[in-house]
Amino acid sequence: MNMAHSAALPTLSQDLEALLAGLSDDSRIQLSAIFIRGKGDHRVIIRRDTGAMVKTNAIGAEAVQLLRKGQCLGTVKKILGKRYGYSDENVNLAPLIRSLAAIELVQKIGDIELGAQIEPLWRRGRQHLKMMMALLLAEMVSLSVRFLPLPVMLMALYVKKGRRKAEIMRSIETNLAGVSALRLSPQSIPRVARKNYDLLARSFTDRFLLATLAPRKLDRWLRKYTVISGMEHLQAARNAGKRVLLCGFHTGSYSLVPFILAAAGYEVTALANILDSAKEAPDRKMAEMEKAGFHYPLQIASGKLGMRRLVQAIHRDRSVLIFPDTMVGSASSAGTATFLGHLIHARPGLTWLWQKGGLAIMPVYLTSESGYRHHLTIENEIALHSDRGPVTPEDMIRAVYRKLEEIVIENPSQWHRWSDFQQMTLGSISDPTVLDHRL
Predict the structure, then answer these.
(1) Higher pLDDT pick, 79 / 33
(2) Half-sphere exposure in the Cβ direction for 342 (13 Å, CA)
(3) Can you give the pLDDT at residue 218?
(4) Which of 9, 25, 386, 393 has its CA 20 to 30 A from that of 202?
């Protein structure tokens, strides 16, 4: 069990790294003056004088509270393990402590003073003001989620916040311009890029709502603001005794897809690209929904054993959902496919599952519509064929990426991989070196 913590932290000194590596269950940590804000799995530990902060989950916040009371690491592990059903050795405090040390929240480890720097008064005042404004905004968001009627809440949360980041915008525009299959004019590229950026930001808001809405409000949001097309394809496949592999794509607020399917009563096990420790949050959410009387037959598979859990779900006649359209290194590739005039490495998971046999591959994708609504489309089973004999995994991969290509060309602003599209590809298929690689 790991405590979620902020990324992109400063590099620690070698002495501090050595000190952290030498921590034992008898070690005690003394922290700087801090306070903790947030609720559920969205907590922030804030240093009072500088406003520096570390994001964590509910378990991490509880660990910090225990450390503040002077408990040694071994006692903290025992308390958390007993409370959350883990053995002591599976409670990993190291990432949390490293994150705290990186922003000088750790004053003393055992008897060793770390000498945390105190910021000048003027800088502390400015940081404190920024911090108070951020906390005020967070509190307003929290109150709106809890008390505002659903339409008003969505209107307030979907208001565009701040400027678009220029570096990300340049990356999106460059990658859009490099795909001739889209047939975008130079004038239309910035417009599509802006919409793509804003829809990505909206997807983060939707993910926040997924985590924080109360069960009744969440169920109403997923049902009232989503239209589903193609459920009959899914039902027909199930009636025919087929095992279904739902092939999702990173369009719209794609994180909602498994929850929308579960809200419609459909049993699904979804592969999530998260650590096993982070899986605790959706598991707790499903338990919360069940307790409130809303049956959501959703299971999340993650971590190193995620793919095997999908196979187990298939054997229990549950449909499985994966999102294959992400970056992948050549070492873990299942082969290559042509996509939007470029050659890309394909993720091996889709091939591995398909080779288990008897799976109907059905494309499923979400688009963000006006009026804060979503449209979930489930297409009919992809027809697989080969001119060279039996259908191979390569034939299947090419068919999947042809379908994704159709979806992206029809509505390029909805696909969220434009900012890193260049990293997904091996280059244009008109490039002779790429043609050699393909052969």
Answers:
(1) 79
(2) 18
(3) 95
(4) 9
